[in-house]
Amino acid sequence: MMDPMVETPAVMETEVTEKAKRRTFTAEYKKRILEAADRCLASGEAGALGALLRREGLYSSHLTEWRRARDAGGLSALSPKRRGPAARKVNPLERENAELNRKLAKAEARARRAEALVELQKKVSELLGIPLPESDEVS
After folding, report:
1. Which of 8, 34, 38, 90 is the most exposed place for a label (fewest CB within 10 A)?
2. Contact between residue 132 and residue 119 where contact means Cβ atoms under 8 Å apart
């Protein structure tokens, strides 16, 4: 029997959240934040820059990177870049060459199987004593 005074531990429910996604910022957003940060620094208000970063959920390293990009090339440098290696342009001749090589390898494999079957037929006919017709092979 269970004592009604003894409580069972509560089962905590766990919430499954979706996979975290990397944040992306538009060039206009970056420019607006940089202008606001520059105004904070120019006004000399203590803590105004920190409040801006907290409100926007940003880090000071964001400002550093965005300033460096802005100084290097203006608004176009602030545009988000695609991550990962650059897509390699495939030469149409290389694609055709690879396709032809695949077809050739497939045809050679079929030819080897056919030759092996012919050899097997010759051995079976020899074992059973069945004479094979003479062939006009050209070597």
Report:
1. 8
2. no
